């Protein structure tokens, strides 16, 4: 959801934000809602973390993958279902992403190659709708790049931060 929120912030507050780095972002994702996540016969604290685990790159270090798994195993009944409801039903910026002004708020989009929830193609299509947006696929990462393998994520983040450091302050 963070990537989508970044796009919304760039649209609504371009003069208040220096730039956005939207990870795993898309103008709209359809079909990710899963009713079993809120079904009374399903133990979501067992099923959700296993499902989320599949969104990470297989080569991400086990300790990091385990932390993401553990985080998702801690949420209460209906929390994940509500998150996905926003992500897959409520969030729809297809009518406005093309209006994001990257001359006022630069947009950088990064998506992990193993993300099957917000695929690189979803993000690529959204970036193509935003004039001046930068897009890059993160090799060896999945849906939770900063948590599943921070060292690899930094290889993608640092060059963007260096670019932003060189930009004149607005």
Tell me what the structure shows.
The protein is mainly alpha-helical and 170 residues long. It has one domain (2-166): Rossmann fold. The protein contains seven helices and three strands, in the order αβαααβαβαα. The chain has helices at residues 2-12, 44-53, 62-73, 79-90, 120-129, 145-148, 150-166; strands at 20-23, 107-112, 134-138. α2 (44-53) packs antiparallel against α3. The protein is globular. The model has no long low-confidence stretch (mean pLDDT 91).
Short description:
By secondary structure, the chain is mostly helical. It has seven helices and three strands. It has one domain (about 1-165): 3-Layer(aba) Sandwich (Rossmann fold), CATH 3.40.50.
Largest sheet: 3 strands, parallel
Quantity of strands, as a count: 3
User: Treating each run of at least 4 consecutive H or I residues as one helix, how many helices?
Assistant: 7
Uncertain stretches of 5 or more adjacent residues: none
Determine and state the CATH class: Alpha Beta
The CATH topology corresponds to: Rossmann fold
Task: Give the termini separation.
Answer: 27 Å
The ordered H/E elements are HEHHHEHEHH
Order the strands across the largest sheet as they lie in space. Answer: 1-2-3
How many domains? 1
Determine Rg (CA atoms, Å). Answer: 17 Å
CATH superfamily: Alpha/Beta hydrolase fold, catalytic domain
Residue share in helix: 40-55%
CATH architecture: 3-Layer(aba) Sandwich
Topology:
Layout: H1 2-12, E1 20-23, H2 44-53, H3 62-73, H4 79-90, E2 107-112, H5 120-129, E3 134-138, H6 145-148, H7 150-166
